[in-house]
């Protein structure tokens, strides 16, 4: 860090208004400030899919899209594409193409897709697919890259050329059945881990057990320290924000090693601080980290799934860890980890409180890796503005792209650095497939294309392109 940058940051910390989204902090501190301008792309209109002419998305004027690799189609090896497309990342491929690594959030002992001989658990139906596509959504090659895992929700890209995929479950033969997943006694392995998936070839399907067995959602990597920041999505219970410190910097090791240390974030001077409730935007906290002594707990007597899914988080909260509501997407950008609390905040007048733990319509938090400062950069004032944000990515201009998981129409929305929210894309209703939502948004090489998934039984991926220069993306 050069001297000018250091002095600027030091002055900002002294005033409590530091780093990206500092304008949001200023507005929150002043109170009653008018909402920031949205810098969006204008009115949304129905646009036909260049794949087959069907209307699947509503977009601003000038934008086009093509869907690809839908559930039930074939990979290049002839095996079937599973549904529930979820978290995803894009990497630079040969000759201007993009390499996409995509999760499939399939639950239950339904059997592995792809080659079962390579499966972590031959009875589990989740995993990842790796695709090489053009910037217009034309599939050049597609193959399973991790199978036999379960509820692969999101994850995160790694700069050494890999994707870390997260299991959002603790299902296994040693715990009771969950509410929707079927008979756990049919499973052959424990679940609830993270797995590394290389860009070339397939994963070795070895879980990183020291990174915890809990309802993992996403991962954001800090290249300066080699630390992985992890979110937890417990629908009915408190969730935690974690970090995994590997035994060796992964960029030096060339891969992610097991045997490191798992910790949970805590607020300094406030044991078990409840951050799931409403706070003014710009609220900031000093933080510290508490150790998780048993990240991969051994269960005896086959506890209930509700008990098992809280086993790791309870350790952290007993040590003083902070409480969040449903932590989902996370992304690293310029020394800051942005992560989403899907049901954080408070219920606005006229809104119906969502089911599960947390009664708000969503929060976006920022953790500064260089200062240890945690800041609330946005809190949804009502469902019509932002409704249950989930996956998140960041554009080249520093605008966050939020995938909604709401109860009505679902949108891709932009959150600008000055705190403005705008609608970019609306999902047309998916016939006979209730609960369809956006997931896995990621910009391709050079920012030409935004790739995104629809997470549903009839899931598919999309490539979107157009006049990005007109707005905040």
UniProtKB/TrEMBL annotation:
Domain of life the protein comes from: Bacteria
Classification via Pfam families: PhoX (PF05787)
PANTHER family: MEMBRANE PROTEIN, SLR8030 PROTEIN
Protein name: DUF839 domain-containing protein
